[in-house]
């Protein structure tokens, strides 16, 4: 947590940087770890992302009761705020009056790539859920890039959610 409304995650992933970039911007590859949806790499362009968490692993599992609304997937609208291939991408997180913003920064580190994900303008009630979501999605991305099959999304997410809710209480 960088501020009361900002979280940040870092991962060291197998490169090269163009490969990791393609998992951020190519619909089919992004759909393997986060959400599919064609995105034009141009500032100001709008795009949709289709989240279907059960499809992120070979062992689909239904969401916990609390997240049943996500069982059949959900689509959201986003906008590109900054795009400097293959190093920087900033998007709105869902198009609404007070959207939050996500920045992906890529930096080569030898044969690996440091990915920094910073999510800003979050409301306090969104912090635990958003943190556990990014933690789980980034674990799926790391598995995909390492050539491993990811664990089912919902059990991992539920474990992370309990962890982040516990941190919020402390």
TrEMBL record:
Domain Activator of Hsp90 ATPase homologue 1/2-like C-terminal: 16-145
Lineage: superkingdom: Bacteria
Database matches in InterPro entries: ASHA1/2-like_C, START-like_dom_sf
UniProt similarity note: Belongs to the AHA1 family.
Protein name, entry field: ATPase
Organism annotation: Dyella japonica A8
